[in-house]
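Design request, tokens follow.
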């Protein structure tokens, strides 16, 4: 039996993870957690312990899981990510924000703890699968695909008055509100670029992003011999969730097989002019230190303001850009430093909101 701690159990990833666990005889939940919705009934039904809000590492200490599935949204997931890596507990990571903000600290914790870091983000799961068993020096570069979101093809003028309802109508994936908004601004692909840098130890100039509206190809790995391996499938998160939870078994899922006849695969350049959050992420990643943490914190503040109708859609990128322009980016030596950097980024972003 693999005992799983599911953090973010009430969310889009969390609910799909429960479906996978319930269908698999060797997986069981030992802990479930959420941010604000009570999960004690859900926990009881699974014979698991629960926690709502607070420091989730208390629940992890108490239950000592074999694997942590971190499906919390936002920087709130950072302590659980570091706890699993430090303690040598396998980590299935959906919470990309924690790796973006704490990348260096997370890798150092993993080196000490020796935990397996299994990506749940579909593109990163795809890269992980294409890379399996290959020598690092054989890899030339990675390609992450982006759907382009609901506003692909629009100009900045057309974007000025789009509403949260329009931003939340994603063309291919059905996800929580924060990541769906990030997909509409391309910040999601920006976060994923930084996530890929830390997961796969490649410099930013060897990680490319292409827009691929049908989300059929999830990622491509190019090798030095000229071969490229792609990962294809329906856009359904149960596949990468199941892969991470059952690794290396690759258990069966109810997801239908992909038919190919009549399918056309289209790829195009991302529109970085009208969707500046992708280029801003690349820049923050390349500058390193706490720049990715500031990018993430400012983005979280701006997305929340947009969803609460306190900020126009195009204001999200403006708030992040202004916050980064005021950022000195010193490295975080430990979690306290990082939390301080995140708090400071949120303060700066808050000031930018006030003038936006
Ligand atoms: P969601 O909004 O549907 O769910 C978020 C979950 O996090 C909820 O259970 C909520 O209670 C919990 N949570 C929020 N704040 C918390 C806190 N302070 N402490 C503890 N729990 C807290 O989000 P989602 O779409 O399931 O996404 C979760 C994570 O997975 C995000 O980082 C997202 O980027 C990533 N991800 C999601 C998808 C997807 O298809 N939904 C795909 C790839 C990556
Ligand atoms: Mg993704």
């Amino acid at each position: 039996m693999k005992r799983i701690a599911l953090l973010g159990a009430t969310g889009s990833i969390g609910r799909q993870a429960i479906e996978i666990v319930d269908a698999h005889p060797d997986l069981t939940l030992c802990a479930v957690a959420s941010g604000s919705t009570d999960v004690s009934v859900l926990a009881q039904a699974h014979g698991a312990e629960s926690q709502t809000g607070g420091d989730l590492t208390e629940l992890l200490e108490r239950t000592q899981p074999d694997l942590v599935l971190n499906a919390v949204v936002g920087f709130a997931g950072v302590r659980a990510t570091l706890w699993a890596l430090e303690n040598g507990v396998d980590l299935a990571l959906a919470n990309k924000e924690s790796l973006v903000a704490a990348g260096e600290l997370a890798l150092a914790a993993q080196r000490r703890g020796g935990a397996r870091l299994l990506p749940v983000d579909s593109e990163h799961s795809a890269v992980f699968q294409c890379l399996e068993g290959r020598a690092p020096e054989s890899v030339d570069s990675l390609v992450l695909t982006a759907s382009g979101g609901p506003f692909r093809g629009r100009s900045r003028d057309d974007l000025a008055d789009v509403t949260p309802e329009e931003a939340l109508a994603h063309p291919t994936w059905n996800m929580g509100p924060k990541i769906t908004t990030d997909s509409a601004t391309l910040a999601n692909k920006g976060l994923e670029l930084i996530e890929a840098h830390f997961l796969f130890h490649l410099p930013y100039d060897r990680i490319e992003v292409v827009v691929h509206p049908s989300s059929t190809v999830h990622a491509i790995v190019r090798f030095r011999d000229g071969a490229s391996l792609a990962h294809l499938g329906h856009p359904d998160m149960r596949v990468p969730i199941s892969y991470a939870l059952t690794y290396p078994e690759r258990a069966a899922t109810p997801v239908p097989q992909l038919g190919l006849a009549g399918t056309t695969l289209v790829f195009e350049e991302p529109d970085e002019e009208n969707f500046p959050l992708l280029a801003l992420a690349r820049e923050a990643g390349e500058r390193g230190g706490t720049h990715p943490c500031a990018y993430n914190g400012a983005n979280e503040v701006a997305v929340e303001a947009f969803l609460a109708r306190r900020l126009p859609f195009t204001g999200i990128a403006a708030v992040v850009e202004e916050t980064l322009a005021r950022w000195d980016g010193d490295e975080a030596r430990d979690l306290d430093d990082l939390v301080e950097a995140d708090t400071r980024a949120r303060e700066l972003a808050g000031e930018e909101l006030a003038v936006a």
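Comment from the thread starter after seeing the answer: thanks! The chain has a mean pLDDT of 97.
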